[in-house]
Amino acid sequence: MSETTLDARNLLCPLPVIRTQDRVEKVEPGECLLIQCTDHGVINDIPAWCRINGHEVLSIDEQDYEIVIKIRVGKTR
């Protein structure tokens, strides 16, 4: 399974979600996307966006000031 990383650190809401949406369009269904963020709002925002758009949140890890969210991309079209 392929894995892509998105650096959304130092971006404030809603930019991490917008960048995630843009990157998901370039990733094949079934692949994983690691999203690196520093805005704690993503802990709620990205899982909500995933539920609406058919993607699966695999993990949310918080380390110091950084949040890493791993999602599995569902259908993008």
**Sequence of secondary-structure elements:** EHEHEE
Q: What's the overall average pLDDT, rounded?
A: 94
Radius of gyration: 11 Å
Proportion of strand residues? 35-45%
Q: How far apart lie the N and C ends?
A: 20 Å
The dominant shape is: globular
CATH class: Alpha Beta
Tell me the domain tally. Answer: 1
Helix vs. strand class: alpha+beta
Count the strands?
4
CATH architecture: 2-Layer Sandwich
- Tell me the helix content: 25-40%
Q: How do the strands line up in the largest sheet?
A: 1-2-4-3
Low-confidence stretches: none
Helix tally equals: 2
At the fourth level of CATH, the homologous superfamily is: TusA-like domain
Task: Detail the topology: elements first, then pairings.
Layout: E1 3-8, H1 15-24, E2 32-37, H2 42-53, E3 56-63, E4 66-72
Parallel strand pairs: 1-2
Antiparallel strand pairs: 2-4, 3-4
